[in-house]
Fold this sequence. Notes:
The protein has 21 helices and 13 strands. It folds into two domains: 231 residues, 3-Layer(aba) Sandwich (EreA/ChaN-like  fold); 138 residues. By secondary structure, the chain is of the alpha/beta class.
Amino acid sequence: xxxxxxxxxxxxxxxxxxxxxxxxxxxxxxxxxxxxxxxxxxxxxxxxxxxxxxxxxxxxxxxxxxxxxxxxxxxxxxxxxxxxxxxxxxxxxxxxxxxxxxxxxxxxxxxxxxxxxxxxxxxxxxxxxxxxxxxxxxxxxxxxxxxxxxxxxxxxxxxxxxxxxxxxxxxxxxxxxxxxxxxxxxxxxxxxxxxxxxxxxxxxxxxxxxxxxxxxxxxxxxxxxxxxxxxxxxxxxxxxxxxxxxxxxxxxxxxxxxxxxxxxxxxxxxxxxxxxxxxxxxxxxxxxxxxxxxxxxxxxxxxxxxxxxxxxxxxxxxxxxxxxxxxxxxxxxxxxxxxxxxxxxxxxxxxxxxxxxxxxxxxxxxxxxxxxxxxxxxxxxxxxxxxxxxxxxxxxxxxxxxxxxxxxxxxxxxxxxxxxxxxxxxxxxxxxxxxxxxxxxxxxxxxxxxx
Length: 451
Protein backbone atom coordinates (compact mmCIF):
# COMPACT_ATOMS: atom_id res chain seq x y z
CA UNK A 1 0.00 0.00 0.00
CA UNK A 2 1.47 3.31 -1.06
CA UNK A 3 1.48 6.09 1.49
CA UNK A 4 0.60 9.55 0.24
CA UNK A 5 2.81 12.44 1.30
CA UNK A 6 0.87 14.97 3.32
CA UNK A 7 -0.42 18.23 1.91
CA UNK A 8 2.15 20.09 4.00
CA UNK A 9 4.91 18.37 2.02
CA UNK A 10 3.25 19.32 -1.25
CA UNK A 11 2.83 22.89 -0.10
CA UNK A 12 6.53 23.01 0.67
CA UNK A 13 7.44 21.53 -2.73
CA UNK A 14 5.27 23.98 -4.63
CA UNK A 15 6.02 27.06 -2.54
CA UNK A 16 9.73 26.51 -2.76
CA UNK A 17 10.24 25.29 -6.30
CA UNK A 18 7.15 25.32 -8.56
CA UNK A 19 6.77 27.96 -11.27
CA UNK A 20 3.15 29.13 -11.72
CA UNK A 21 2.00 29.29 -15.35
CA UNK A 22 -0.35 31.93 -16.70
CA UNK A 23 -2.54 31.28 -19.72
CA UNK A 24 -0.92 32.42 -23.00
CA UNK A 25 2.12 33.93 -21.27
CA UNK A 26 4.93 32.46 -23.35
CA UNK A 27 7.56 33.84 -20.95
CA UNK A 28 6.22 31.44 -18.29
CA UNK A 29 8.45 28.82 -19.85
CA UNK A 30 11.68 30.78 -19.34
CA UNK A 31 12.76 28.43 -16.49
CA UNK A 32 12.16 25.37 -18.67
CA UNK A 33 14.03 26.83 -21.66
CA UNK A 34 16.95 27.71 -19.39
CA UNK A 35 16.85 24.22 -17.86
CA UNK A 36 16.93 22.62 -21.34
CA UNK A 37 20.01 24.64 -22.20
CA UNK A 38 22.06 23.04 -24.98
CA UNK A 39 20.23 19.71 -24.91
CA UNK A 40 19.46 18.39 -28.38
CA UNK A 41 16.50 16.14 -27.59
CA UNK A 42 13.44 17.50 -25.77
CA UNK A 43 10.72 14.93 -25.21
CA UNK A 44 7.32 16.47 -24.46
CA UNK A 45 4.70 14.06 -23.16
CA UNK A 46 0.96 14.02 -22.55
CA UNK A 47 -1.19 12.22 -20.02
CA UNK A 48 -3.84 11.54 -22.68
CA UNK A 49 -4.14 11.48 -26.45
CA UNK A 50 -7.12 13.83 -26.39
CA UNK A 51 -6.42 16.91 -24.24
CA UNK A 52 -6.35 20.40 -25.78
CA UNK A 53 -3.96 21.93 -23.25
CA UNK A 54 -1.31 19.26 -23.77
CA UNK A 55 -1.23 19.92 -27.52
CA UNK A 56 -1.29 23.68 -27.04
CA UNK A 57 1.47 23.83 -24.43
CA UNK A 58 3.70 21.46 -26.37
CA UNK A 59 3.26 23.70 -29.39
CA UNK A 60 4.15 26.81 -27.36
CA UNK A 61 7.29 25.21 -25.95
CA UNK A 62 8.26 23.85 -29.36
CA UNK A 63 7.91 27.26 -31.02
CA UNK A 64 10.32 28.73 -28.49
CA UNK A 65 12.80 25.90 -29.01
CA UNK A 66 12.67 26.47 -32.77
CA UNK A 67 12.93 30.25 -32.58
CA UNK A 68 15.43 30.58 -29.73
CA UNK A 69 17.39 27.33 -29.57
CA UNK A 70 17.64 26.27 -33.22
CA UNK A 71 15.60 23.08 -33.06
CA UNK A 72 15.00 21.85 -36.58
CA UNK A 73 12.60 18.90 -36.34
CA UNK A 74 9.44 17.77 -34.59
CA UNK A 75 9.01 13.98 -34.30
CA UNK A 76 5.65 12.67 -33.15
CA UNK A 77 3.79 9.49 -32.20
CA UNK A 78 2.28 9.15 -35.67
CA UNK A 79 2.74 6.90 -38.68
CA UNK A 80 5.76 7.81 -40.76
CA UNK A 81 4.13 8.29 -44.21
CA UNK A 82 1.19 10.30 -42.85
CA UNK A 83 3.46 12.65 -40.91
CA UNK A 84 5.83 12.95 -43.89
CA UNK A 85 3.00 14.48 -45.90
CA UNK A 86 2.92 17.23 -43.28
CA UNK A 87 6.70 17.46 -43.51
CA UNK A 88 6.51 18.11 -47.24
CA UNK A 89 3.81 20.72 -46.71
CA UNK A 90 5.59 22.70 -43.99
CA UNK A 91 8.77 22.67 -46.08
CA UNK A 92 6.88 23.94 -49.15
CA UNK A 93 7.53 20.75 -51.12
CA UNK A 94 4.02 19.32 -51.58
CA UNK A 95 0.94 19.96 -53.68
CA UNK A 96 -1.23 20.58 -50.62
CA UNK A 97 -2.53 24.16 -50.62
CA UNK A 98 -3.65 24.42 -47.01
CA UNK A 99 -2.60 22.91 -43.71
CA UNK A 100 -5.86 20.98 -43.46
CA UNK A 101 -5.04 19.25 -46.76
CA UNK A 102 -1.70 18.10 -45.36
CA UNK A 103 -3.54 16.32 -42.53
CA UNK A 104 -5.61 14.24 -44.95
CA UNK A 105 -3.35 11.20 -44.64
CA UNK A 106 -4.59 10.50 -41.12
CA UNK A 107 -7.47 8.18 -41.91
CA UNK A 108 -6.82 5.38 -39.46
CA UNK A 109 -8.33 5.32 -35.96
CA UNK A 110 -7.77 7.46 -33.90
CA UNK A 111 -7.93 10.31 -36.42
CA UNK A 112 -8.43 12.99 -33.75
CA UNK A 113 -4.88 12.52 -32.44
CA UNK A 114 -3.56 14.47 -35.45
CA UNK A 115 -6.67 15.75 -37.23
CA UNK A 116 -7.55 18.32 -34.58
CA UNK A 117 -7.67 22.09 -34.24
CA UNK A 118 -4.42 22.39 -32.27
CA UNK A 119 -2.36 20.42 -34.80
CA UNK A 120 -3.92 22.43 -37.60
CA UNK A 121 -2.80 25.66 -35.95
CA UNK A 122 0.72 24.37 -35.30
CA UNK A 123 1.19 23.04 -38.84
CA UNK A 124 0.05 26.42 -40.20
CA UNK A 125 2.55 28.19 -37.94
CA UNK A 126 5.36 25.87 -38.96
CA UNK A 127 4.71 26.47 -42.66
CA UNK A 128 4.68 30.25 -42.13
CA UNK A 129 7.90 30.04 -40.10
CA UNK A 130 9.67 28.06 -42.82
CA UNK A 131 8.40 30.39 -45.56
CA UNK A 132 9.96 33.34 -43.73
CA UNK A 133 13.41 31.77 -43.37
CA UNK A 134 16.26 33.25 -45.42
CA UNK A 135 17.03 31.34 -48.59
CA UNK A 136 19.40 28.45 -47.96
CA UNK A 137 18.63 28.13 -44.26
CA UNK A 138 17.45 24.60 -43.32
CA UNK A 139 13.72 24.35 -42.76
CA UNK A 140 12.09 22.73 -39.75
CA UNK A 141 10.60 19.32 -40.51
CA UNK A 142 7.75 17.24 -39.11
CA UNK A 143 8.18 13.46 -38.85
CA UNK A 144 6.37 10.38 -37.56
CA UNK A 145 7.97 7.68 -35.43
CA UNK A 146 5.30 4.98 -35.23
CA UNK A 147 4.98 1.65 -37.09
CA UNK A 148 1.30 0.95 -37.76
CA UNK A 149 1.39 1.98 -41.44
CA UNK A 150 2.40 -1.39 -42.92
CA UNK A 151 0.52 -1.06 -46.22
CA UNK A 152 1.04 2.69 -46.67
CA UNK A 153 4.76 2.18 -46.11
CA UNK A 154 4.92 -0.65 -48.65
CA UNK A 155 3.22 1.65 -51.16
CA UNK A 156 5.77 4.39 -50.39
CA UNK A 157 8.69 2.05 -51.07
CA UNK A 158 7.17 0.91 -54.36
CA UNK A 159 6.46 4.48 -55.50
CA UNK A 160 10.04 5.45 -54.81
CA UNK A 161 11.49 2.46 -56.65
CA UNK A 162 9.12 2.98 -59.59
CA UNK A 163 10.84 6.34 -60.13
CA UNK A 164 14.47 5.40 -59.61
CA UNK A 165 14.74 1.64 -60.17
CA UNK A 166 11.85 -0.04 -62.06
CA UNK A 167 13.51 -3.45 -61.95
CA UNK A 168 14.01 -3.12 -58.21
CA UNK A 169 10.35 -2.11 -57.91
CA UNK A 170 9.38 -5.40 -59.56
CA UNK A 171 11.39 -7.38 -57.03
CA UNK A 172 9.84 -5.38 -54.18
CA UNK A 173 6.33 -6.06 -55.46
CA UNK A 174 7.05 -9.77 -55.58
CA UNK A 175 8.28 -9.70 -51.98
CA UNK A 176 5.46 -7.58 -50.62
CA UNK A 177 2.90 -9.79 -52.41
CA UNK A 178 3.34 -12.11 -49.44
CA UNK A 179 0.75 -9.96 -47.62
CA UNK A 180 -1.78 -9.88 -50.50
CA UNK A 181 -4.14 -12.63 -49.37
CA UNK A 182 -4.67 -10.83 -46.03
CA UNK A 183 -5.82 -7.61 -47.71
CA UNK A 184 -5.53 -4.64 -45.35
CA UNK A 185 -6.09 -6.78 -42.24
CA UNK A 186 -2.70 -6.62 -40.52
CA UNK A 187 -4.02 -8.29 -37.37
CA UNK A 188 -5.26 -11.28 -39.37
CA UNK A 189 -1.77 -11.60 -40.84
CA UNK A 190 -0.21 -11.38 -37.39
CA UNK A 191 -2.51 -14.03 -35.94
CA UNK A 192 -2.03 -16.42 -38.84
CA UNK A 193 1.77 -16.05 -38.87
CA UNK A 194 2.11 -16.20 -35.09
CA UNK A 195 0.22 -19.49 -34.77
CA UNK A 196 1.57 -21.19 -37.88
CA UNK A 197 -1.62 -20.89 -39.94
CA UNK A 198 0.42 -19.30 -42.73
CA UNK A 199 4.06 -18.65 -43.47
CA UNK A 200 5.43 -15.35 -42.24
CA UNK A 201 6.67 -12.62 -44.57
CA UNK A 202 9.74 -12.04 -42.40
CA UNK A 203 12.36 -13.11 -44.93
CA UNK A 204 10.75 -11.10 -47.72
CA UNK A 205 10.62 -7.81 -45.81
CA UNK A 206 14.17 -8.22 -44.50
CA UNK A 207 15.44 -8.97 -48.01
CA UNK A 208 13.75 -5.83 -49.34
CA UNK A 209 15.27 -3.59 -46.69
CA UNK A 210 18.73 -5.11 -47.19
CA UNK A 211 18.57 -4.61 -50.96
CA UNK A 212 17.49 -0.99 -50.57
CA UNK A 213 20.24 -0.27 -48.04
CA UNK A 214 22.85 -1.99 -50.20
CA UNK A 215 22.17 0.55 -52.93
CA UNK A 216 21.93 3.53 -50.57
CA UNK A 217 25.03 5.39 -51.78
CA UNK A 218 24.06 5.00 -55.43
CA UNK A 219 20.42 6.01 -54.99
CA UNK A 220 21.09 8.93 -52.63
CA UNK A 221 23.72 10.45 -54.96
CA UNK A 222 21.33 11.03 -57.80
CA UNK A 223 20.14 14.63 -57.30
CA UNK A 224 21.67 16.08 -54.14
CA UNK A 225 19.59 16.98 -51.09
CA UNK A 226 16.22 16.12 -52.63
CA UNK A 227 17.43 12.64 -53.60
CA UNK A 228 18.86 12.04 -50.12
CA UNK A 229 15.54 13.07 -48.55
CA UNK A 230 13.65 10.77 -50.91
CA UNK A 231 15.94 7.86 -50.15
CA UNK A 232 15.68 8.50 -46.41
CA UNK A 233 11.89 8.41 -46.74
CA UNK A 234 11.98 5.14 -48.70
CA UNK A 235 14.51 3.49 -46.40
CA UNK A 236 12.57 4.36 -43.25
CA UNK A 237 9.39 3.00 -44.80
CA UNK A 238 11.15 -0.24 -45.75
CA UNK A 239 12.48 -0.56 -42.20
CA UNK A 240 9.01 0.19 -40.87
CA UNK A 241 7.56 -2.65 -42.96
CA UNK A 242 10.16 -5.04 -41.51
CA UNK A 243 9.47 -3.96 -37.91
CA UNK A 244 5.69 -3.81 -38.36
CA UNK A 245 5.67 -7.37 -39.73
CA UNK A 246 7.46 -8.54 -36.59
CA UNK A 247 5.23 -6.40 -34.35
CA UNK A 248 2.00 -7.91 -35.71
CA UNK A 249 3.40 -11.43 -35.36
CA UNK A 250 4.45 -10.74 -31.77
CA UNK A 251 1.38 -8.94 -30.45
CA UNK A 252 -0.63 -12.16 -30.05
CA UNK A 253 2.03 -13.85 -27.93
CA UNK A 254 3.47 -11.17 -25.63
CA UNK A 255 2.30 -7.69 -24.68
CA UNK A 256 5.77 -6.91 -23.34
CA UNK A 257 7.56 -8.00 -26.50
CA UNK A 258 5.21 -6.10 -28.83
CA UNK A 259 5.49 -2.96 -26.67
CA UNK A 260 9.28 -3.20 -26.70
CA UNK A 261 9.37 -3.76 -30.45
CA UNK A 262 7.23 -0.68 -31.03
CA UNK A 263 9.27 1.60 -28.79
CA UNK A 264 12.54 0.20 -30.11
CA UNK A 265 11.31 1.05 -33.61
CA UNK A 266 10.40 4.59 -32.59
CA UNK A 267 13.79 5.03 -30.93
CA UNK A 268 15.59 3.68 -34.01
CA UNK A 269 13.62 6.04 -36.23
CA UNK A 270 14.54 8.98 -33.99
CA UNK A 271 18.22 8.02 -34.23
CA UNK A 272 18.00 7.65 -38.01
CA UNK A 273 16.31 11.05 -38.26
CA UNK A 274 19.04 12.64 -36.15
CA UNK A 275 21.76 11.17 -38.36
CA UNK A 276 19.97 12.20 -41.56
CA UNK A 277 19.37 15.79 -40.48
CA UNK A 278 22.88 16.19 -39.07
CA UNK A 279 24.37 15.03 -42.35
CA UNK A 280 22.01 17.07 -44.51
CA UNK A 281 22.37 20.34 -42.59
CA UNK A 282 26.03 20.13 -41.63
CA UNK A 283 25.31 20.71 -37.93
CA UNK A 284 23.99 18.60 -35.08
CA UNK A 285 20.25 18.07 -35.32
CA UNK A 286 18.01 19.24 -32.47
CA UNK A 287 14.70 17.41 -32.22
CA UNK A 288 11.49 17.89 -30.21
CA UNK A 289 9.51 14.69 -29.65
CA UNK A 290 5.77 14.58 -28.92
CA UNK A 291 4.46 11.31 -27.49
CA UNK A 292 2.43 9.98 -24.59
CA UNK A 293 3.96 10.09 -21.11
CA UNK A 294 4.08 6.28 -21.13
CA UNK A 295 6.49 6.39 -24.07
CA UNK A 296 8.56 9.38 -22.97
CA UNK A 297 8.94 8.97 -19.22
CA UNK A 298 11.86 6.70 -18.31
CA UNK A 299 10.32 3.22 -18.07
CA UNK A 300 12.98 2.08 -15.59
CA UNK A 301 11.31 4.29 -12.95
CA UNK A 302 7.82 2.86 -13.47
CA UNK A 303 5.75 -0.25 -13.07
CA UNK A 304 6.33 -0.81 -16.80
CA UNK A 305 10.02 -1.33 -16.24
CA UNK A 306 9.32 -3.88 -13.52
CA UNK A 307 7.40 -5.88 -16.14
CA UNK A 308 10.39 -5.82 -18.46
CA UNK A 309 9.17 -3.03 -20.73
CA UNK A 310 11.36 -0.24 -22.04
CA UNK A 311 10.38 2.89 -23.92
CA UNK A 312 11.60 5.80 -26.01
CA UNK A 313 12.40 7.96 -22.97
CA UNK A 314 14.58 5.29 -21.39
CA UNK A 315 16.40 4.46 -24.64
CA UNK A 316 17.00 8.14 -25.42
CA UNK A 317 18.35 8.82 -21.93
CA UNK A 318 20.63 5.80 -22.10
CA UNK A 319 22.07 6.92 -25.42
CA UNK A 320 22.21 10.69 -24.99
CA UNK A 321 22.32 11.32 -21.23
CA UNK A 322 21.90 14.98 -20.28
CA UNK A 323 21.49 15.80 -23.96
CA UNK A 324 17.90 14.55 -23.53
CA UNK A 325 15.26 16.31 -21.40
CA UNK A 326 12.05 14.43 -20.56
CA UNK A 327 8.96 16.54 -19.76
CA UNK A 328 5.72 15.00 -18.49
CA UNK A 329 2.23 16.52 -18.37
CA UNK A 330 -0.50 15.82 -15.79
CA UNK A 331 -4.06 16.91 -15.08
CA UNK A 332 -6.58 16.34 -12.32
CA UNK A 333 -9.98 16.67 -14.02
CA UNK A 334 -11.87 18.07 -16.98
CA UNK A 335 -12.84 16.51 -20.32
CA UNK A 336 -11.00 14.42 -22.89
CA UNK A 337 -11.56 13.20 -26.42
CA UNK A 338 -11.42 9.41 -26.39
CA UNK A 339 -13.31 6.31 -27.49
CA UNK A 340 -14.96 3.67 -25.33
CA UNK A 341 -13.50 0.84 -27.42
CA UNK A 342 -10.95 0.48 -30.20
CA UNK A 343 -12.25 1.71 -33.54
CA UNK A 344 -15.34 3.41 -32.12
CA UNK A 345 -16.22 7.10 -32.71
CA UNK A 346 -14.60 9.83 -30.63
CA UNK A 347 -16.53 10.98 -27.57
CA UNK A 348 -16.08 13.98 -25.31
CA UNK A 349 -15.74 12.27 -21.94
CA UNK A 350 -15.42 13.65 -18.44
CA UNK A 351 -12.10 13.01 -16.70
CA UNK A 352 -12.74 12.06 -13.11
CA UNK A 353 -10.79 13.79 -10.34
CA UNK A 354 -7.53 11.95 -9.68
CA UNK A 355 -7.53 9.19 -7.06
CA UNK A 356 -5.88 9.49 -3.66
CA UNK A 357 -2.25 8.45 -3.67
CA UNK A 358 -1.66 9.78 -7.16
CA UNK A 359 0.72 12.51 -8.23
CA UNK A 360 -2.21 14.30 -9.90
CA UNK A 361 -4.13 14.37 -6.63
CA UNK A 362 -1.09 15.75 -4.82
CA UNK A 363 -0.66 18.49 -7.41
CA UNK A 364 -4.37 19.30 -7.20
CA UNK A 365 -4.07 19.71 -3.43
CA UNK A 366 -1.72 22.67 -3.92
CA UNK A 367 -4.59 24.83 -5.17
CA UNK A 368 -2.44 26.04 -8.09
CA UNK A 369 -4.21 25.82 -11.43
CA UNK A 370 -1.14 25.54 -13.68
CA UNK A 371 2.52 25.14 -12.81
CA UNK A 372 5.90 23.76 -13.82
CA UNK A 373 8.15 21.68 -11.54
CA UNK A 374 11.80 21.09 -12.43
CA UNK A 375 13.31 17.91 -11.02
CA UNK A 376 16.74 19.35 -10.40
CA UNK A 377 19.20 17.06 -8.68
CA UNK A 378 19.11 17.42 -4.88
CA UNK A 379 16.09 19.76 -5.11
CA UNK A 380 13.23 19.38 -2.67
CA UNK A 381 10.81 18.51 -5.48
CA UNK A 382 13.12 15.79 -6.78
CA UNK A 383 13.38 14.30 -3.30
CA UNK A 384 9.69 14.58 -2.44
CA UNK A 385 8.53 12.94 -5.69
CA UNK A 386 11.13 10.17 -5.64
CA UNK A 387 8.88 7.66 -3.85
CA UNK A 388 6.40 5.58 -5.91
CA UNK A 389 3.07 7.26 -6.59
CA UNK A 390 0.14 6.39 -8.79
CA UNK A 391 0.16 8.16 -12.15
CA UNK A 392 -2.73 8.33 -14.62
CA UNK A 393 -2.44 7.40 -18.29
CA UNK A 394 -5.34 7.85 -20.72
CA UNK A 395 -4.69 6.66 -24.25
CA UNK A 396 -7.19 6.72 -27.11
CA UNK A 397 -9.60 4.69 -24.97
CA UNK A 398 -10.95 5.96 -21.64
CA UNK A 399 -13.06 3.81 -19.34
CA UNK A 400 -13.89 5.81 -16.21
CA UNK A 401 -15.82 2.89 -14.72
CA UNK A 402 -12.60 0.88 -14.37
CA UNK A 403 -10.26 3.85 -14.05
CA UNK A 404 -8.12 2.61 -11.16
CA UNK A 405 -7.39 -0.69 -12.91
CA UNK A 406 -7.31 0.62 -16.49
CA UNK A 407 -5.54 3.96 -16.25
CA UNK A 408 -3.11 4.07 -13.31
CA UNK A 409 0.36 2.69 -12.75
CA UNK A 410 3.12 3.28 -10.19
CA UNK A 411 6.03 5.62 -10.98
CA UNK A 412 8.85 7.52 -9.32
CA UNK A 413 7.91 10.79 -10.98
CA UNK A 414 11.05 12.82 -10.27
CA UNK A 415 13.20 10.11 -11.85
CA UNK A 416 10.76 9.30 -14.61
CA UNK A 417 10.85 12.93 -15.86
CA UNK A 418 13.20 15.89 -15.73
CA UNK A 419 10.25 18.27 -15.46
CA UNK A 420 6.47 18.06 -15.08
CA UNK A 421 3.80 20.53 -16.20
CA UNK A 422 0.51 20.25 -14.32
CA UNK A 423 -2.72 21.80 -15.59
CA UNK A 424 -5.40 21.11 -13.02
CA UNK A 425 -8.50 21.40 -15.22
CA UNK A 426 -8.25 20.55 -18.92
CA UNK A 427 -10.65 20.19 -21.83
CA UNK A 428 -11.03 17.84 -24.74
CA UNK A 429 -9.08 18.44 -27.92
CA UNK A 430 -11.38 19.44 -30.81
CA UNK A 431 -11.47 16.94 -33.68
CA UNK A 432 -11.70 18.40 -37.18
CA UNK A 433 -14.62 16.03 -37.78
CA UNK A 434 -17.03 16.48 -34.88
CA UNK A 435 -19.68 13.81 -34.53
CA UNK A 436 -23.01 14.32 -32.79
CA UNK A 437 -21.72 11.97 -30.12
CA UNK A 438 -18.72 14.25 -29.49
CA UNK A 439 -20.85 17.43 -29.52
CA UNK A 440 -23.28 16.05 -26.97
CA UNK A 441 -20.53 15.03 -24.58
CA UNK A 442 -20.85 12.50 -21.78
CA UNK A 443 -23.93 12.50 -19.59
CA UNK A 444 -23.40 13.25 -15.89
CA UNK A 445 -22.82 10.23 -13.65
CA UNK A 446 -26.16 10.81 -11.92
CA UNK A 447 -28.17 10.86 -15.17
CA UNK A 448 -31.13 10.57 -15.36
CA UNK A 449 -31.96 11.27 -11.71
CA UNK A 450 -29.77 14.35 -11.35
CA UNK A 451 -28.97 13.37 -7.77
